[in-house]
Design a protein that fits this description.
By secondary structure, the chain is α/β, with parallel strands linked by helices. The protein is 40% helix and 20% strand. It has 12 helices and 8 strands. It has an 8-stranded mixed β-sheet. Helix 1 links the parallel strand 3 and strand 4. The protein is globular.
Amino acid sequence: MRQARFDKQGSFIRWTEAAGDGPPRIYLHGLGAASAAYHAHIAAGPELAGSRSLFVDLPGHGLSDRPADFGYTLEDHAAALAAALDEAGAQGGEIVGHSMGGAVAIVLAYRRPDLVARLFVTEANLDPRPPLTAGSSGISSYSEEEFVMGGGFARVLDRVGPIWSATMRLADPLALHRSATGLVRGTRPTMRRMLMDLSMDRTFVQGALSGELPGQDELTASGVRVVTVPGAGHNVMFDNPAAFARVLAGGQP
């Protein structure tokens, strides 16, 4: 495990690193998740084994610190991630981001393109104000006080099921709520606009069970490779790991 300071108070963002050859591959988790739990089995597969791999936990999640005075916006998460990659000497790598982690990866690539040679986002949030679900929109529908102190966190844990709750219960409730609120608010320009305006190699992965990707044609026209993985929903790396690994390695599902 390694760490880097990311705020004026000296809080640490942490990651688990596996040594290997070639450009680094950096894995980012979604809201209320942890990177190694969602991606270690993919990195160890035959298509990707042997590469330098960093499994980064964003602030407030997993192994990383959870300062109470941190904003936890997408921009804040991206800045903390940049501190980790600078400390690790992991410039010019591939960022593999799932859901919220994909949105953070897009912001990082837009603000620090020197750190990103290839962008691989899975079921990432691209637009503000998503439909109401148990995820970011559901969490942000609570006030911060109600979610943290009024039982909202416990109610969400009961709703999301055993897989997601296993990592969500490790996240700081305040950080979780602020991260969800930042996702719902989005960025300016939007994550979609940033992704379309970037020039590095970009892939967007969608699970077939999630339905049609909104705005797919304009993403493709801007140079984004859009891949749909059969038999998979939001958690593509769990639902069809073999196909996910093939796509990450540059092949077809």
